Amino acid sequence: MTQRTAGIHHITAFVDSAQETTDFYAGILGLRLVKKTINFDAPEVYHLYFGNEAGSPGTIITFFPSPGSRKGRVGGGQVGITTYAIPDGTLDFWEARLRRFGVSVEKRERFGETVLHFRDNSGLILELVERAEGPASTWSFGGVPADKAIKGFGGAVLYSVAPEKTSHLLEHVLGMEKIGQEGSYARYKTTGELGNIIDININPMEYGAGGAGTVHHIAWRAKDDEDHAAWRTKLSGLGYHVTPFVDRQYFNAIYFREEGGIMFEIATDPPGFARDEPADMLGEKLMLPDWYEKHRALIEANLEPFEVRVLEEDRE
Q1: Considering only CA atoms, which of 117, 133, 135 is closest in space to residue 125?
Q2: InterPro entries under this entry (predicted)?
């Protein structure tokens, strides 16, 4: 049986302010802050996770906010666009909502779908697209009712410096099916209900530059530790330089940079975000791994305070 990923597990990006990012993704987009922790490799920086009510794989966007950090440049070797799926019939609601919050929105067409194209406060490029498939969200916040809430990822658009090699990896290693080509884009699909459609710009792109407003890596789903180990064996056997297994508390991870320059991760679906705090209290407290707990006071003192809040436009 061919091993394949079900699609996107999470996407991780660099941003500026923790408060401004929370206001955008929770306050405007209505996502739930499901985990407030730190970058385990740089404990002076938050690692914030936003997703559906449970932070299910296929819904999670994560951020390393760093106030005053340099601006990045979107380009080759990156996820160029992060796409969210919204329920059928809600595009007008979302266009009006984004415009009410002063977000510049452009309607675009790709593969017969109308998408809302915009940027967040740090410059990260986002899209909203109506999709019938995938479970509905049960989370509501501010002015976003559950029946109009973002479901999770629709997918992503990859920008590669070697798109033929990246495309080969998507199809022949990760197990995705090529389902179309239109203009500058090829489309691939895999088995998941969310985060399952990947577009790639088939024209080579010049390298981008990391910094606020760019994606650091995209993570693909492994269903369990056994599947995860098989992925590492497979990738190493194909000549990819894969990291050892890394415990990220809420999933286990391996990383490698594919030949088009994009940092890929493969992450396990379990154990999930309720492993260290109750499901109904996700994201309310700064959670630290055991090895950092003794430094909690110092870590908290060095982090920018922020809160999840209903924005003024939704209180009027």
Answers
A1: 117
A2: Extradiol_RC_dioxygenase (IPR052537), Glyas_Bleomycin-R_OHBP_Dase (IPR029068), Glyas_Fos-R_dOase_dom (IPR004360), VOC_core (IPR037523)
Q: Which domain range does residue 281 map to?
A: 8-314
Asked if residue 2 is part of any domain, the answer here is no
Q: For residue 3, is it within any domain?
A: no
| CB environment 169-205: b (16+ within 10 A), e (fewer) | bbeebbbbeeeeeeeebbbbebebebbbbbbbbbeeb
Buried/exposed code over 259-286 (b: 16+ C-beta within 10 A; e: otherwise): ebbbbbbbbbbeebbbebbeeeebbeee
Tokens matching residue 151: 């479901």
Find where tokens 């479901």 sit: 151
**250 lies in a domain?**
yes
Domain count, the chain: 1
SS3 assignment, position 312: helix
pTM over 0.85: yes
The predicted-structure confidence for 265-313, as pLDDT tens digits, reads as follows 999 999 999 999 999 999 999 999 999 999 999 999 999 999 999 999 9
